[in-house]
Design a protein that fits this description.
The structure is a single chain. The chain is mainly alpha-helical. The protein is 52% helix and 6% strand. It is built from 23 helices and seven strands. Helix 1 runs antiparallel to helix 2.
Length: 499
């Protein structure tokens, strides 16, 4: 990717416009998922994303591909891969080589169900060029257990295998997966335990326990198994997320215990924050010590080598009513704020962290979406402490009174702190469909989209480019470095399945 951005490094004016476009797209690709938000419908979100993807792909194709190396969400990663493969005729030979490496590295990180869904869309769109087939074949060949995929993602694997004319069979796998998918009645039994369990589950309840949970659910309903009994029997076969998701169904309605079969400290920070917010206030209160320990452990892990290095940190955290999110993204903005609270605590110097919630609350474990968004007042309170860093985590809808936060930050930057002794950054977890970007608070204050709190240190680095002080050449050099690391495998890795 050494020359990936040379085409947009000519002309100061063009550089600035290109850099703004790139940062706008990165913010959207991190936060937007095409789902309904608190202030916009799913249709508005999709329409806005459609325009952005088309605009950036046509005008900055190489930067569009480079976004796959950043911490964008899975929804937009899939859309980028689809867009690149559908428009292969528009790419040069060099671009195709770079894109192929980026696509392969990104597919390796995506949950398999998303990849199979992408393959189905490509087949429906009749995208059948040689590069697409090679990418699909390589990804399928790298799957650790084709038989497991044949059971859990049967329709997806079947569609992909037909599209690339995949042949099954080889050492240790005498064509069983192919027969299972395309000739299900040919074999009276299978050597592979999972394939044979699927066959037996059609008439034997005992075989249901041997299947993946999502597959077993259908057979349990067919056999008329009681839901409670089925869930208890399936606990050993569930993933950690499945156990958390079904916890309420497996316990009495008034149970206030935490799950004993799950180690909360190993969960990703933002996902753990979502789980904590899904618990009732009584559970959070009774298990304050365990939940706080788990959140702080996850935060220290996310902080990594940056722990304790940020000096004196003040945070303005949005727990207003709009942080409740939407039906599709329930409490997501609030969960990001809660996770950022614990991460910033870990990043700050010991005893040098000042959290300020917009509601005025002081107990992070009992936060709830409530009230207006008095960002301006909280920003004033934070700046009075003279922090080295001020981090604002909010959707940017300052409404008590409207616009006060922007005016406070403008005056602070231009008159009270022109030397920028305090670094200010705004992290926004909500995509604004009407503005094609996340909502900003004030000119001169960098704003970056955020979906997972774990990405905050990296996003602060991206946000500095939005401030206009670092230079556009540095932005493109940053993208080049990220691509080089990503395709070399430094940041790539198998994504934990999220079924």
């Amino acid at each position: 990717m050494a020359t990936s951005t040379e085409t947009i490094r000519t002309g100061t004016g063009a550089d600035l416009v290109a850099a703004e476009d790139v940062l706008l797209f990165v913010n959207a690709a991190i936060t937007a998922t095409g789902q309904r938000e608190f202030r916009s419908t799913a249709y508005q979100q999709r329409l806005s994303l459609d325009f952005l993807h088309e605009y950036v792909r046509v005008n900055y194709r190489r930067v569009y591909a480079a976004a796959l190396a950043l911490d964008i969400n899975d929804h937009n990663a899939v859309r980028i891969v689809q867009g690149l493969l559908e428009s292969a005729a528009d790419a040069t030979a060099e671009e195709k080589r770079t894109e192929g490496r980026l696509i392969a590295a990104r597919l390796a990180k995506l949950p398999p169900q998303r990849v199979y869904r992408l393959f189905r869309v490509l087949r429906g769109a009749k995208v059948n060029n040689r590069r697409t087939r090679a990418i699909m074949r390589d990804w399928l060949a790298a799957r650790p257990d084709p038989a497991h995929d044949a059971v859990k993602y049967r329709a997806g694997l079947k569609t992909a295998a037909r599209h690339v004319h995949l042949r099954f069979g080889g050492p240790g796998e005498p064509g069983e997966t192919g027969d299972f998918l395309f000739r299900p009645g040919r074999r009276p039994r299978y050597r592979h335990q999972l394939l044979d369990a699927w066959r037996r589950a059609h008439y034997a309840q005992g075989a249901v326990d041997e299947l993946p949970f999502t597959v077993a659910e259908g057979f349990a309903a067919r056999h008329g198994m009681k839901r409670e009994v089925f869930l208890e029997r399936m606990v050993p076969r569930m993933t950690r997320l499945e156990r958390l998701r079904t916890q309420g169904q497996r316990s009495a309605g008034n149970d206030v215990r935490l799950p004993t079969d799950i180690d909360l400290t190993v969960m990703p920070l933002t996902r753990l924050a979502l789980y904590v917010l899904s618990l009732g206030f009584e559970v959070r209160w009774l298990h304050r010590k365990e939940l706080t320990h788990a959140l702080r452990t996850a935060a220290r892990r996310a902080a990594g080598p940056h722990a304790g290095s940020w000096g004196r940190v003040a945070a303005v955290l949005d727990d207003s009513y709009s942080s409740s999110g939407s039906g599709e993204k329930r409490r997501r903005p609030l969960a990001v704020a809660l996770a950022c609270h614990f991460l910033l605590e870990a990043l700050a110097a010991p005893g040098a962290y000042i959290p300020l919630w917009t509601s005025g609350g002081t107990d992070p474990l009992l936060v709830r979406p409530w009230g207006p968004t008095p960002l301006g007042t909280r920003v004033l309170d934070a700046l009075e402490h003279g922090p080295d860093r001020l981090v604002i985590v909010s959707d940017g809808w300052d409404n008590a009174p409207p616009g006060l936060a922007g005016e406070v930050l403008r005056v602070w930057r231009t008159r009270l702190d022109p030397d920028r002794r305090t670094a200010v950054v705004h992290m926004n977890p909500v995509y604004d469909a009407d503005g094609f970007d996340v909502r900003h608070l004030a000119q001169g204050v960098p704003t970056a989209g955020i979906r997972d709190a774990e990405d905050l240190p990296a996003l602060v680095e991206i946000a500095q480019f939005a401030e206009g002080r670092t230079g556009t050449a540095a932005l493109y050099a940053y993208l080049d470095r990220q691509v080089a690391r990503f395709v070399s495998g430094e940041k790539a890795g198998a994504h934990r399945e999220q079924a």
